Write the structure tokens for this entry.
Amino acid sequence: MIIDVLTELILNAVNAAHLAGEFPLEEMPTAVKLEKPADKAHGDYSSNIALILKKSTGLKDSRDIASRIIKHLPTDGSVIDRIEVAGPGFMNLYLKPDWLHNILLRIWAEDANYGMATNRIGDRVLIEFVSANPTGPISVVNGRAAALGDVLGNLLASQGAVVEREFYINDALNSLQLEKFAASVALRYLQELGHPLSVPSSNPEEADILEPGGADVVLQPQLSFPKDGYRGEYVRDIARAIIAEVGNRFAYPLALEPESMAYFREATLKSMVAAQREALQAFGLQYNNWFYESSLYESGSVDKTIRHLRDREMAYEQEGALWLRSSAFGDEKDRVLVRSNEKATYVAADAAYHDNKFSRGFNHLINIWGADHHGYVARLKAGVAALGYDVSRLEIVLTQMVSLVRDGEAVIGGKRKGNVIELQQDLVDEVGKDAARFYFLLNSYETPATVDVELARRQSMDNPVYYVQYAHARLCSILAKAETAGFALKSPADVNLSVLTHPAELEVLRKLADYPAEIKIAADTYSPHRLTRYARDMASLLNVFYENCRVLSGKEEEVPAEITIARISLADGARRVLRNLLTMLGVSAPEKM
RNA sequence: GCGCCCGUAGCUCAGUGGAUAGAGCGCUUGCCUCCGGAGCAAGAGGCCGUUGGUUCGAAUCCAACCGGGCGUACCA
């Protein structure tokens, strides 16, 4: 990458200047910082090395240091055209135009691999994200983690890591939530068969509502829905699906008998997981694994982990419960592993789960959690450390909260209240996967967000994703038109690129040259939102290019063939990079819109 | 109370310790007989929450304070 080349040149120059007696040097700087100046009048790249060396050299004037370094920098090579000292002592580097043009050769050669790197080869990463409880559909608030996790996976893979995506299903048998959920389904089932059902209003002030049975017949007795039951419409859908499958086999009172619960629990779980999977697929997300918490109990992993912790003397008994010595690992207090009723807590299950993740050969675990779970970070890490793992290999990314708003009013969403705003039904089905994904990737996950679905739908045409896709489609259109006009696409190596001198052309080339560095930074800082920003910038530069630089001759403007051919190369390079970028984001790159 | 996160343009948000703090939306004014106007150009709009500190240099790092969110279970 160009930055590495320049960095090495500068370090060598500093060393050469020192050896030539230009200045004393207490220690060699290890990292030279090169940046792209915001103002292009400050060169293609800019180095602050002279400012940094002020202390180490004992010289007072950074501008003087800079000029002493410059004396030892080669400007006759193929990279640096000229160097200027500016401001308090910045060294502004101007690259040879050749270098910029040659980016097109590299893009041509690497094509879909342009932007890929190898610095994470050997990393085996497991990203676990969304992992919504199987008691309701995937909500729009899950959209942020879904988009983040998926694109983060793409980013790490682009840097050479082997990445797997995993969804953890909290289906533990001692989960009371699942019992209540299954019971809610059973009651809706009976209602569908014809029993009237009295349902508590979601407003505790109001009286219960008596709903008729769903069938033509009216069966007795009349039943009542629990106060803390799950009220969502999707519960009724599951009940209908069960009727489609088994009919009235669980007719009253069988559905409410404890021995039927196992069936309802299993059926609801199966149907909920299928629905979640479908919703995430519609969002463009394909998991490698759907991991069942229950499998940890069934395989004995949880017991094994607890035994393991006891053997390592990381657990002790007190007041009838088994406690993890988490406070020894930075947690504020010790946590219960096994309750006095002998049931294991999720702390034990989570420790077993992460033990399992490591045992599958992953050396880097990433969990994406909502900020409301930040209190659990310390205890999970304590559990992992107590098992003897290096906790730095477990990384927990906390996304800030997504709150829902409808026309300016806060929506207190909830599965029990039954007003879940669904990712698939209420957003993806309305605006499409591309717009929905782009929407969630616009901002940093570290910023709290509010989502107004009504607004998002109404403004979907304003979504910047179309601006970017449009730029891509326009490139494709021009390239197709060029071909019919007799300008077949050819390798940029066979094109005289030096005629690309218009500022709009050079701006596009610079942006294309930045792409690999941009991907690397986005991967290193877990910042997919940098990509959507880059995409918008890229599209904007392309629009300026279209405006100022005609590729093909038109009625009013004749374009010399040599320039047309060079601009075709530029358009094709931009097309490839834009396509790579959109692919990274999981967004389609249409040739027509 | 304690812990974590967030305060940047009217709104939603970018901003790897660097030079004159940016974008989108909204607002004002221009530009369609030409490769896709889902576009382009120009303009108005800021004590970067406050006060100290570190630094050649702070929106960025540190401290305190002021606002807002979240968390502080033998629930997940």
